[in-house]
Fold:
Amino acid sequence: MTDWNSVEAADCAVPADRPMDDLVSELSRALADPDPLVRDGAPYAVLATWIARGTIGTSRRLELGDEMATRFTDPRVEARTFAPLVLGMLVTAGDFKAGWVDSFERWYPAERDLRGHDGTLGWLHAVAHGADLLAGFGRHPEVAPARMLNLAAARLTAPTDHVYDQLEDDRLARAIALVLTRSDLSEHDAVGWLDPIADRFGSDRISTPVPAHISNCLRTLRLLHILADRGVRPTSELPAEPLHHRDAVKSATAAVLDRIVRR
Structure:
């Protein structure tokens, strides 16, 4: 395998002795490697840099995106959960295919392995990595924002015994808030995605201990309420953007929280 640590140390200069297609294929495989030092190390940094700089040609980037979309059905969790990171890089760089959204939409609420970190596999972070891509698609002009809001609701209402423990709730709340900055979002759509959450969790009395999926949902919506009040920053370098229909989102989020905790 290419010495990607050396490539990264050389400011991600392209090795002269290998075709670009072969290098990208190797990086693609590395981003699904079970060894976290490979998957989340220099290959990740090099691929991100090459995509951001436009080093990889457009056609090969689109092929890479197709590979990642297919990877959502991989039997290995580490392969599935790093696919949205690569797709996010591509979408940020301006690449897009409608089929990528379809594949992501099928995978995100259906993923059952929600561990943030594993002692052997390293970071998995299905919810957080998926949230980042949800935000990327949700701010893309070719994706209806309501579609991604409904997808967030599907993720929040999916059954699980795993309590988010690596800030996944914060990442998902931030992603939802970013989608809610879309100026073409109607007020109905800005709050309508909360209805299935209220219907799912607002009927039966909460048992104790509180079920994992309800705890995850409550913590996600609490931060969303704060972001609706204060705005959300797309990146750490940019100022906060206001959520469209801010007051309606605050009111609807508070009403759902109240309905869940008072049942």
